[in-house]
């Protein structure tokens, strides 16, 4: 869907913060499948965790991302995905070596512009849900910067700046150039 926009890139690069800002501005945001899986698996003491059973984790991420895609509102308004099917398929393909990525990309197209958070060691933090180190995050980022262009996506690297400026960058790049307050005023039918 051309209104489905992927925010991907380096783990710990500020995706969740950016998506919270986009949501605050009235846009639909789909949370990262991986975080949701880890939270659920920790709560039930499950094993589909990236540090216990990476393949089971990725299979579950693929399934959740597919459900997110088919159930997201398709009314033409922007829907921002914190990662998505392509991220999960790329990691699973790398792990198993079976071709999967192109079929997933064709069956579930996103907006042709993908936004990637670059490595940003100054803000990178491990937590109970993100146990991998910065080197694993860098490997993931390198994989994604190779894969998205090969699938025909145009990649925009997000600037290392405030969350408000990052959100403006995303919206301006997508062609939503009116400042946030003006957009809200116009939506309500008021004069800016």
Short structural summary:
By secondary structure, the protein is an alpha/beta fold. The chain has a single domain, classed as 3-Layer(aba) Sandwich (Rossmann fold), CATH 3.40.50.300. It is built from 8 helices and 5 strands; from the N terminus they run E-H-E-H-H-E-H-H-E-H-E-H-H.
Which descriptors apply to this entry?
single chain, 192 residues, alpha/beta, Rossmann fold, 5-stranded parallel β-sheet, 8 helices, 5 strands, 11% strand, NadR/Ttd14_AAA_dom, AAA family ATPase, P-loop_NTPase
Secondary structure tally, helices: 8
Number of domains: 1
The percentage helix is 40-55%
The CATH architecture classification is 3-Layer(aba) Sandwich
**Spans where pLDDT lies below 50 across 5 or more residues:** 177-192
Beta strand %: 5-15%
Secondary-structure element pattern, one letter each: EHEHHEHHEHEHH
Got a strand count?
A: 5
- Biggest β-sheet: strands ordered side by side in the sheet: 2-3-1-4-5
InterPro entries: NadR/Ttd14_AAA_dom, P-loop_NTPase
Domain NadR/Ttd14 AAA: 5-166
Pfam family, one: AAA_28
Protein name: AAA family ATPase
Structure report:
- There is one protein chain.
- This protein has one domain (about 5-180): Rossmann fold (3-Layer(aba) Sandwich), CATH 3.40.50.300.
- With about 190 residues, it is an alpha/beta fold.
- It has helices at about 15-25, 35-45, 55-70, 85-95, 100-105, 135-150, 165-175, 180-185, and strands spanning about 5-10, 30, 80, 115, 155.
- Helix content is about 50%, strand content about 10%.
- It has a five-stranded parallel beta sheet, sandwiched between helices.
- It is globular.
């Amino acid at each position: 869907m051309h209104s489905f926009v992927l925010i991907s890139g380096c783990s710990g690069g500020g995706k969740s913060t950016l998506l919270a800002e986009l949501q605050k501005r009235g846009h639909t945001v789909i949370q990262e499948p991986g975080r949701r899986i880890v939270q659920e698996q920790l709560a039930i003491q499950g094993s589909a965790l990236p540090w216990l059973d990476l393949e089971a984790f990725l299979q579950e991420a693929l399934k959740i991302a597919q459900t997110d895609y088919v159930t997201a509102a398709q009314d033409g308004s922007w829907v921002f995905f914190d990662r998505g099917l392509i991220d999960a398929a790329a990691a699973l393909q790398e792990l198993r070596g079976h071709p999967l990525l192109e079929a997933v990309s064709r069956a579930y197209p996103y907006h042709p512009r993908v936004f990637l958070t670059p490595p940003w060691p100054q803000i990178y933090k491990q937590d109970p849900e993100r146990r991998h180190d910065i080197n694993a995050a860098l490997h993931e980022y390198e994989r994604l910067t190779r894969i998205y262009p090969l699938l025909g996506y145009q990649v925009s690297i997000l600037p290392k700046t405030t969350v408000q400026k990052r959100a403006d960058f995303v919206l301006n790049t997508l062609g939503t150039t009116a400042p946030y307050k003006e957009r809200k005023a116009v939506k309500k039918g008021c004069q800016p």
